[in-house]
Amino acid sequence: MRRVEGSAGVSLMECTNPVKDKWRIRWDVQEKENGSASYMEEEFGHKPTDEEIRTLVMSWYNSQTDAAILSGFVYKNAPVWLSTENQYNYKAAYDLAVQTGGKSLPVTFKFGSDEQPEYHTFEKLDELKDFYVQAVSHIQHSLEEGWRQKDRFKVEQYTQQP
């Protein structure tokens, strides 16, 4: 699977070599103003079934959603890595701070990257709440965007191809 540059209006499914039964499936077509397009493409050694197409495209959208959640959140100009472990740690720190009325604070988290770490210390419950609510909102927005993209996918666009 790879991102390819090509012509706008590219076929979503194409037999590229009838002798070897090579087929290409394309999705996430992003047309540009100059008449070209960028799209994802995968080659099959047979004509793919509807289920193979659906599985391929849905798994790609799922991985894009996961990547957006993992590395797409920025808090006070610092990238925040939202791994499952970090999400758990942020929730645990927030829950404990709420349960203790802020007595468990301060708490410090490492943001940024290993190359450029940025440490942020949360002294007040309101500040930690702001961070946590923004992180959860980012996750929810990423999920909703992934759902919208998956909802727009129609396998019929591939079965109606010549």
Walkthrough of the structure:
This protein has 162 residues and is an alpha+beta fold. 43% of the residues lie in helices and 30% in strands. The protein has 2 domains: 1-48, no CATH class; 49-162, no CATH class. A 4-stranded antiparallel β-sheet has the order 1-4-3-2, with no helix packed on it. Strands 5-6 form a two-stranded antiparallel sheet. The protein has a two-stranded antiparallel sheet with strand order 7-8. The chain starts with a strand and ends with a helix. The model has no long low-confidence stretch (mean pLDDT 95).
Mean of pLDDT: 95
Major sheet description: 4 strands, antiparallel
- Shape, per Cα inertia axes: elongated
State the order of secondary-structure elements, H for helix, E for strand: EEEEHEEHEEHH
Radius of gyration: 22 Å
Count the domains. Answer: 2
| Distance, first to last CA | 22 Å
Number of strands: 8
Strand content: 25-35%
**Order of strands across the main sheet:** 1-4-3-2
Please state the structural category. alpha+beta
Key structural traits:
single chain; 162 residues; alpha+beta; 2 domains; four-stranded antiparallel β-sheet; two-stranded antiparallel sheet; 8 strands; elongated
Topology:
Layout: E1 2-7, E2 13-17, E3 22-31, E4 36-44, H1 50-71, E5 73-75, E6 78-80, H2 84-99, E7 107-112, E8 117-122, H3 125-152, H4 156-159
Antiparallel strand pairs: 1-4, 2-3, 3-4, 5-6, 7-8
Helix pairs in contact: 1-3, 2-3
